[in-house]
Write a structure and sequence with these properties.
Keywords: Cell membrane, Membrane, Transducer, Transmembrane, Transmembrane helix
GO molecular function, one term: transmembrane signaling receptor activity
Family: Belongs to the methyl-accepting chemotaxis (MCP) protein family.
Pfam families: MCPsignal, sCache_2
Largest sheet: 6 strands, antiparallel
CATH class of the largest domain: Mainly Alpha
Number of strands: 6
Strand content: 5-15%
Helix content: over 70%
Membrane topology: Multi-pass membrane protein
């Protein structure tokens, strides 16, 4: 197994072709020898049939002797005559006895002693025949003899069988040199046929081997090692390919390796970008969470300020109602002191002047109420934009408090002036009889003042309702802010999970070895990859910095 692993695919394929040739030669040799053996068996079958026929004939005469039909001499003569007439394919039968003397031979005299007869190899031929004939079925023996027709020594195959009753040995032989010639002729024919077939198979196999090697692009063991390296995460070993190779298995594997390097490199860069993005998102979430908490605190402060403003507006409305009551009381007092006003016409002029001042103050109060109404409207608008400019509520609240304070001061001045008017009316009540018309005008002015105080009271009520709506809006803003805080926390948790996943992805990608650092031939590729990575990293850094700056700018604007 170890030796087979060290052999290349090219050697294995050509070795297979060589084994085919060896197999064909073995088949040809085996077939030739089988054919030779078949011819020998055919010759042997003919000899055996001839000897068996002669043996049966001799046994029939033995039976006649035993039955008394013939004497032994008569029977042997008849047997010799009849057996001598038996032939097969040029083969004749000769007979010798146990003393190795010829009983009958077509070419030799009877009684010739053959005990010392040897073939050309020095073998005592008849002695060996006597040995192999001992079994009842007889036996075969191969020896070398001179062929008179061909004037050369040739091998002869002998078959001999014994007639035990008479101690005869019936033998025959045949030359087998022609079998060898036939064997070699068959070997030549089969060799030529096998050569033609082998050449055709060799051409086909050569074409197949070249196609297989071209399709593989190299030794499969090399491809196996590369695939094992890729499976183990090492993608930094390029394959040795032919410059014109564009369709082999190794070319496809190299394309897969290059694509994996590219994909994993892009995934690695994407992982780095995602990691940087998650860090920025996490930082932004933390900043957003802190700012959301600040926003929530500001809204709570705004709600508290609006509560104080509501109380102040309620007090302003109560003061307006009290001022209205005082105005009504002033009008009644002026009517009751009509007679006294006749005496204090000069004082009533002062009251008229004071009334004008009261009118100015009331106009001021009206202006303040109008501005307060505008600020309340502005506060409503600010409440609608609470998600972006929450700090504007504090400014509006301060302005409303200032206007409310001015309204309170104006109300105090009104009360002071009214007290002064009351005193002067009391002082001039003695002379009111002479100034009934003036008193009537004072009563009319008090009525107008009452109407103005009604308007102030109505405006204060509207202010109170508007501030209540602002309080509701601020409460809704606080709820939304709390929800935003929860969503920010969920986003932070999701970002943390994403960061963990990115870290795991980076760990998995780090398992792959994308580039080799030692070979100089791949330095340019590594430098290109590094430059690409640096460019992408720089782009990510600049993009991240720009996004961070934009985010900071938006937070500052908020």
């Amino acid at each position: 197994m170890g030796v087979a692993k060290g052999i290349s695919m090219r050697s294995k394929l050509w070795g297979t072709l060589a084994l085919m040739w060896i197999g064909m030669m073995i088949i040809v040799g085996w077939g030739g020898f089988e054919r030779k053996q078949m011819l020998i068996d055919e010759r042997m079958a003919g000899l055996k049939h001839l000897i068996t026929s002669a043996h049966n004939l001799a046994e029939s005469y033995v039976d006649q002797v035993q039955s008394g039909e013939l004497t032994r001499e008569q029977a042997q003569k008849l047997a010799i005559r009849n057996v001598g007439e038996l032939t097969h394919d040029g083969s004749y039968i000769y007979i010798f006895n146990n003393d190795l003397k010829l009983v009958w031979h077509p070419k030799r005299d009877a009684g010739t002693d053959m005990s010392n007869f040897r073939d050309d190899n020095g073998i005592y031929f008849y002695r060996e025949l006597r040995k192999v004939a001992q079994p009842s079925e007889g036996g075969t023996f191969l020896y070398t003899s001179y062929n008179d027709q061909k004037n050369q020594n040739e091998s002869r195959l002998n078959y001999v069988q014994r007639v035990p009753e008479w101690n005869w040995y019936l033998a025959t032989n045949v030359y087998i040199t022609d079998i060898n010639a036939t064997f070699w002729r068959n070997m030549m024919k089969m060799g030529l046929v096998s050569l033609v077939i082998g050449l055709i198979i060799t051409l086909v196999m050569s074409w197949i081997i070249r196609n297989v090697l071209t399709s593989l692009g190299g030794d499969p063991e090399h491809a196996k090692q590369v695939v094992q390296r890729i499976a183990s995460g090492d993608l930094g070993h390029p394959l040795d390919l032919s410059p014109r190779d564009r369709s082999s298995l190794l070319y496809a594997i190299e394309g897969m390796r290059v694509r994996l390097v590219s994909v994993l490199g892009n995934v690695s860069q994407a992982g780095l970008a995602i990691s940087a993005g998650t860090r920025r998102i996490a930082d932004g979430n933390q900043d957003l969470s802190a700012r959301t908490e600040q926003h929530s605190a500001s809204i709570e402060e705004t709600a508290a300020s609006m509560e104080q403003l509501t109380q102040t507006v309620h007090q302003n409305a109560d003061n307006a109602h009290q001022a209205r009551a005082l105005a009504v009381e002033t009008s009644t007092t002026a009517g009751e002191g009509g007679e006294m006003m006749n005496r204090v016409v000069s004082h009533m002029e002062e009251i008229n002047a004071s009334s004008r001042q009261v009118t100015d103050i009331i106009e001021l109060i009206d202006s303040i109420a109008f501005q307060t109404n505008l600020l309340a409207l502005n506060a409503s608008v600010e409440a609608a934009r609470a998600g972006e400019q929450g700090r504007g509520f504090a400014v509006v609240a301060n302005e409303v408090r200032g206007l409310a304070g001015r309204s309170a001061d104006a109300s105090k001045e009104i009360r002071a002036l009214l007290e002064s008017s009351k005193t002067k009316v009391e002082q001039g009540s003695a002379v009111v009889s002479e100034a009934r018309q003036v008193i009537q005008r004072v009563v009319d002015s008090a009525g107008r003042m009452t109407d103005l105080m009604d308007e102030i009271s109505t405006a204060s009520s509207e202010q109170s309702n508007g501030i209540e709506q602002i309080n509701i809006a601020v409460s809704q803003m606080d709820q939304v802010t709390q929800q935003n805080s929860g969503l920010v926390q969920e986003a932070a948790n999701a970002t943390e999970m994403l960061r963990d996943q990115v870290t795991q992805l980076e760990t998995e990608i780090a398992w792959f070895k994308l580039e080799r650092t030692s070979p100089a031939s791949h330095g340019a590729h590594s430098a290109k990859t590094a430059a690409l990575s640096t460019s992408q990293a720089s782009s990510d850094t600049v993009s991240g910095a720009a996004e961070t700056a934009t985010a900071e700018k938006e937070w500052e604007t908020f």
